[in-house]
# Entry
Amino acid sequence: MSLLDELDFKGSIATTKLREQHKETVKIAESYLQNKNLNDLLNHVEDLFKIHFEIEEKIVYPVFEKYLKNYLPYMEPIKMVLAEHNAVRNLYRKIKEGIDVENNAKTLAELLLQHVYKEENGVFNQVDKFVPDAIKVKISGQIDEFLKNIK
Ligand SMILES: [Fe+2]
Ligand SMILES: [Fe+2]
# Structure
């Protein structure tokens, strides 16, 4: 069964574009695990570094952090997803260096699925719950601006 059927990828205006991008990540990661097309996987990961991770790390999570503090005395949800971003970067680097390519690529694909699952079921829902609506609109505008400038 595909993760695409398990998650609904729906949320507020602040997370909806990122959730749409998650669908593509799931498709690529799941198809890698079946047909081992390494190029597709690596090209997608390069796009993640340029676009998706950038939006999360520079726009969404820094804003979310301020509101999360009002509800939780620790930053664990954010630390956890950022640690996974770094794990993705490390695996990508090892693969590019030719280190244990097959194993690392499999781990990378599985990690991407796990990461999407955690964001969809956890952190993004917290963003949708804790960030005030006016700020969500602002986040959405910043994401549009970012996407416009990248093209
Ligand atoms: Fe992420
Ligand atoms: Fe994400």
About this structure: The mean pLDDT is 96.
